[in-house]
Structure formats: C-alpha cells, structure tokens
Design a protein that fits this description.
Elements lengths: L4 H23 L4 H22 L4 H23 L4 H17 L1 H4 L32 H12 L6 E8 L7 E7 L11 H8 L6 E6 L8 E9 L1 H9 L3 H7 L1 H5 L4 E8 L4 E7 L11 H8 L8 E6 L2 E7 L22 E7 L4 E5 L1 E2 L2 E2 L2 E4 L6 H15 L2 E6 L4 H6 L5 E4 L1 H18 L24 E6 L1 H5 L5 H14 L5 E7 L10 H9 L4 E3 L6 H7 L22 H7 L13 E4 L6 E5 L21 H9 L42 H12 L2
Parallel strand pairs: 13-17, 13-18, 14-15, 14-16, 16-17
Antiparallel strand pairs: 1-2, 2-4, 3-4, 5-6, 6-8, 7-8, 9-10, 9-20, 11-12, 18-19, 19-20
Length: 684
C-alpha cells in the first residue's frame, strides 16, 4: 500500500533537521538558529507540564511534544561536549527515533472510532456501522477491513485484527466484534464470510471468543478462521488422522477416532486401529462406505473389521486372505497343552483354533456346510487333530466317498450307511457304562479329566457325516437322533466327543433343539459357505445374538478381471467366474462369529505325514465288554443280526421314546412302519 503523505513529510523534516541540530551549537552557540532550538524546546517542556496536569489525552500530547523537548536536550548536550562526534551521533539518533515512532503523524487527532478499551458510547436508537480508522493496524488488517466493508460489514460486525497463518499465503484468522457495543453477534453465517472473501463455505470456521487480559470476549465477539489453503492441502495431501476423520469417521464407522496405522509387508496387509470415544455405543459399520473410503471393492474380501469393546481394527489386505491356500501341517494339527489346535486362519491373520477338550470334559463338534462347501475337508482336519491327541476315532458317514475312505486308514473304525452309524452309536453309549466302572490308577472312579493322571482309557471321538440325511432315514433315523442326543449329554464325562457334520442346524430340518444346544455348549462351531439369505437364520439357530450376526460373504473372493468393456466391444466371452469359496466361513469361538479360511488337506497326495504312526485303539477290557454285549463286530458288512433290533425280529426296533419327540420321527414310508408306530404309542 502507498505511504501516507503525513508520514513522508514528517520523516523528511527529521532527516533535514538532524544536521542543523548537530551543527548549530558548535558553529554559533549563541546564534539565531541555536536560540530558536532552545525556545522550541522550552515550549515543549512547558506544554508537557501542562499536558501532565490535564485530565485526558496526556499521553498523546507528550508524544507529540517529544521531538521539541528532545531537540533542546540534544542542543544543550552538544554545547557541553567537545568535538563533533557525540553531537552528530545524538542528532542522528534523534532523527532515527522520530522517523520510526512518527509521533506527529500517529498522534494526530482525526474523526475516528473510540479505542476498543475505552468506555462504550451511549447506544443510538438507529445505530449504524462506524468506519474503522487507521489505528496502527498492519497492511493485512487494513486490506481485510476493506474487503469486509465492501461486503457490507456482514452481521453488522467490525474487523478488529487479522493474522496470517504461518506458511499459508491465503489462510488467516480475523477477530470481529459487533458494530454496536453491547450487542451479541447472532446473524453471521459461514456463507456470509465465504462470500466476502470469494472462497468455499467449507473453508470457514466460526469460534466464540473467551475473555483475555486486555481484551473483551463473549457473544459480542467472534473469531473467524479462513483456511482455503489448509482445506486444499487436507483434500489433496491429508494426514492419516485427517483422512480417517473426513471419510471413515463420518460414514464407514461413524464416530470412530484414528489411533495408528501399521503396515506388514511380509504378510501384505495394512492395519488401521481406531477407538470410539467414551459414551459412544457399539460401532455402526457400513461395509460399503468403508470399502469406498479404503478404495477396495466390497466384493473381493480384502477389508475386514474386528471390534473389541471400544477398540476397532480394520485389516486391509493386498489380496484377500480368503483366497490363499493354507496347507495343513502336523504341527498345526497337533493340540497343545490346553487342547487347542489350528483349524485355519482368520481375516486378521491370526490362527483360528478349535479344541479337543474343555474344562467340562471332552469337546463336541458342529460342522455345517452345504454340498461343495468344504465340510469333509474340515472334518478331516478334526479327525487328524483327534488322532494326534491320542484319541480313538470312529468315522461314520451316511454315504461313502473318496475322502472318508482315505481317512479310514488312519482311524480305529470307519464305515458308511445308516446301519453302520446306529451300530457305532450303540457301542459308544455302551462305552459310557463300561468306562463308568473302570477304576483309575488311584483305585477310584472319576469323570474324565485330561489333566488328571491315571486314566484307564483313551478319549473317543465319534464323527457323524451327513448326519441330518441319516437322521431322516425312515428305518434307522429315529434311533440315530435319540442316540446322538444322549451322547451329547453324557459323553463328555467319559471322554467321548461327538462331532456332527451336516448341511443345517435347523430344527425344522430334523436337528433337535436339545442336540443343538448340547453341541453348541461344548464345542466351537464352524459354519462354511452359507447362502446370503440363510445367514441370519443359521446363526440365530446357533444362539448368536442378532447384533452379532455377520454380513453375508461375497460370492467370489477373486478380483474381477479388467477389460470387460473391451471384451464387449470385441464380442469376446467373459472369463469363467471362479467362486473360490470352499473352506471359507465363520468360526464361532465366543459370542461373535469370525470369518476364517480352513487349512487345506490335499487328498491327491499322501497324507500319512499328518497323522501319528500308531493308531489309538480301545483297551482290551473295553473290547471284551463290548463283545459280551454283542456290540463289537463288523459293523459295515454284517447284515442285521437276529434280535439286534428287537426280540425274534430282523427289523430294526424303535428306540426308547419313539413317537414322543414330535416331527423328527415322522418319516413313515410303509404300512408296517405305521403299525409299529401305533403299537409304540399304545404300548401294545
């Protein structure tokens, strides 16, 4: 901005007067020039004394008279000092001080508003904005005032001061007050400020002013931050905290606050940790908005959220961990001292562990998956873990297949068919009676405890593959269901763990509520590849609270191939869609299901290295007792024995309680079965 004329003239006067002031007392001590200087100084002293005795404006008057008073002092000093050195130095100092302070220009009286610290004027009936005069404000403040007045003093406010932000060419903070003292600023909006400076409304921040020493505060004052440069930087080069607050903290996981970011190059994953402030309830997660912020597709299974109270972990993988192959190893499938072994890996990269026993006895198992979902693969992992634990393993499937037959080489007994399953169940139930009478090393009887020494028998793990299909079979199904219920209740005390594998856990499909609850209580269920529309019902049947029911998994975890538009234009077919979801599902270890991918056991290659060299069998005493009861023989190939399912009858007898459990025993397919059902109901 141009220099005011009064300032220029005053500085010229000091510059020209300095040599005269230095020379006059030396050349002609009693000359006319020297006399004028002394008279002017005397007038300055008299005026200063008068100003001190006055009531108002003493400071301004003293400043304006200071050049005359100090000039006389310099003259008297020059007379009393020999030579020109000190005289010239004092005169030059006098001129420099005058040029810097400018007492005449800055102390001039003009028609200006009162100082902000002065007593407030009496309010007028029709107040109008008072113009802001030059009050020593810097160039930035004066320029801001011009822009503000050009906009009509929005909100009837005045600019008190303006300060530029360090390193920012356009960002500044200005202090406003109401034009009329005593009035609150109530009608100023961000849009008004943005219009005055020609920037976006989002670049404006209004803040109340607290009272400080030497400055008023309260509703009559307002601090305005104008930050277009900072807003541009935040949009183009945000920090991690800013990026999270502007994207995920507003839509993906509202209310969350960023904590830190950790990159693991070896595993190809980036972890974002955050937390919810105190008082904020459970996080609301919008998976689609979260993936949009992370610039990943919500369909390729790369972004996952894990919560632990108010702490949040977002895992973003370079490629989905659910498409990776995790080979099964002997080490992973060997239970540790707590009976836990690795069944697969979670989306966080952590191992998903199951168990062979709990603090209440032998662990059961519940494996659920549709056809092709990887259920038999998963069951093979369980079989291997039990074998490595030293358990006796019996594997009964509704129908034979390649994998279960291959597993038969490494277990105590394996077979297929409903008849085989019934016989295995009867033997397991009889073992509970036998083991209940087997004394331990201390000569006493105990419920099974893996940490208690002296147990006379090995754990027994029984597997029922395609259980629901077998349980709905008309001849043996009712007994299969009854026996499974009884094993689920009592087996744990005698080291008998029951593993049920099927395609459903619904009561309406034949799975009783009692069996479901018993298995769920003593196992860590694993659910694989559930259709999206069945997810809610499936986990409800497993006792998972509605708020913890997970979202359906994508149909494919493989990244979509680029170039579809070009293929359409060339008339080329789309590449085949690889679903790649076998072995992917949830493990329910606790109240919240966690997404996992199970280990892979390659049956096209030898698997003997995964199993122990020695197969664990029943004790001689157990086999002898089962043989006495007619329960130990070739369950697979021997046809029903006379009397095996009832006296003097080759037909299977109905189990205890047949016809009393409602819908699960309603599979009647012949007149003979209908007559038998009536006899059981009437006791005939």
């Amino acid at each position: 901005m141009s220099l005011p004329r009064s300032v220029a003239l005053e500085r010229i006067a000091y510059t020209l007067a300095a040599p005269v002031l230095a020379a006059a007392p030396n050349i002609a001590p009693a000359g006319s020039v020297d006399t004028v200087i002394l008279l002017a100084g005397g007038a300055g002293v008299v005026g200063s004394l008068y100003a001190i005795r006055g009531d108002n404006g003493a400071g301004r008057r003293l400043v304006r008279l200071a050049p005359l008073t100090l000039a006389a002092a310099v003259d008297i000093t020059a007379r009393s000092t020999p030579g020109w050195g000190w005289d010239a130095l004092l005169a030059a100092g006098w001129a420099a001080a005058g040029c810097l302070v400018l007492p005449l220009s800055r102390g001039a009286r003009r028609k200006v508003r009162r100082a902000i610290t002065a007593p407030a004027p009496v309010p007028q009936l029709t107040p109008t904005p008072q113009p802001v005069a030059a009050d020593g404000a810097d160039a930035l403040t004066r320029g801001v005032r011009q822009l503000w007045e050009r906009a009509g003093s929005p909100g009837r406010t005045l600019v008190v001061s303006a300060h530029r932000h360090a390193g920012m060419p356009h960002d500044l903070t200005m202090l406003l007050r109401a034009c009329e003292p005593g009035r609150a600023i109530t009608n100023l909006r961000e849009a008004d400020v943005a219009a005055a400076f020609g920037i976006a409304e989002g670049d404006i921040t209004l803040a109340r002013v607290t009272q400080q020493p030497g400055r008023q505060g309260g509703p009559g004052w307002l601090e305005v931050s104008i930050t277009p440069d900072e807003a541009l930087r935040r949009r183009t080069r945000p920090t991690d905290h800013e990026w999270w607050a502007d994207t995920i903290g507003t839509k993906g996981i509202p209310g969350s606050v960023f904590v830190r970011k950790v990159r693991n190059e070896a595993r190809g994953v980036t972890y974002w940790t955050a937390h919810l402030p105190d008082g904020v309830p459970e996080p609301r997660i919008d998976q689609v908005a979260l993936c949009q912020a992370l610039k990943v597709s919500s369909e390729d299974g790369r972004a996952f959220v894990t919560t632990a109270g108010s702490d949040i972990l977002v895992s973003v993988w370079d490629s989905s961990p659910l498409v990776r192959v995790y080979p099964a190893t002997r080490e992973l499938l060997t239970p540790d001292a707590e009976g836990r072994w690795v069944a697969g890996y979670l989306t966080t990269g952590q191992p998903a562990r199951n168990r062979v026993y709990t603090d209440r006895g032998a662990a059961h198992g519940l494996l659920v998956a549709p056809t092709g979902g990887g259920k038999t693969q998963l069951m093979a992992l369980f079989v291997c873990a039990d074998a490595n634990f030293g358990a006796v393993v019996w594997l009964a499937s509704q129908a034979a297949d390649e994998k279960t037959t291959a597993l038969g080489e490494f277990v105590d007994r394996q077979g297929s068919g409903e008849l085989y399953m019934v016989r295995a169940m009867r033997a397991a139930l009889a073992l509970m009676e036998i083991r209940a009478k087997m004394p331990w090393a201390d000569g006493r009887l105990h419920d099974w405890d893996p940490k208690l020494p002296g147990c006379p028998y090995s754990p027994l793990s029984v597997y029922w593959d395609e259980f629901l299909t077998a349980a709905r079979e008309g001849t043996y199904g009712p007994e299969i269901m009854d026996n499974a219920e009884e094993l689920s209740v009592k087996g744990r005390k005698y080291a008998i763990g029951e593993k049920v594998a099927g395609q459903s856990v619904y009561v309406q499909d034949g799975f009783t509520q009692l069996l479901n609850e018993n298995l769920r209580e003593l196992c860590i269920p694993i659910v694989l590849k559930v259709a999206p529309k069945k997810v809610a019902d499936m986990f409800k049947a497993l006792g998972v609270a509605p708020e913890n029911v997970p979202a359906p998994l994508p149909r494919s975890f493989s990244k979509a191939e680029d170039g579809r538009i070009d293929r359409i234009m060339r008339g080329e077919p789309e590449p085949p869609n690889n679903s790649n979801t076998g072995g992917v599902g949830w493990i329910v270890d606790g109240s919240k299901p966690e997404v996992m991918r199970s280990l892979y056991m390659d049956f096209s290659k030898p698997i003997d290295h995964l199993f122990p060299e020695t197969i664990t069998r029943l004790t001689d005493h157990e086999i002898t007792e089962l043989t006495k009861r007619g329960l130990w023989f070739d369950w697979q190939n021997e046809p029903p024995r006379p009397g095996e399912f009832g006296p003097d009858s080759d037909e299977p007898r109905k189990p205890r309680g047949a016809g009393k459990s409602g819908g699960r025993h309603d599979a009647i397919t012949s007149p003979r079965q209908a007559l038998d059902a009536i006899k059981n109901l009437t006791g005939a």
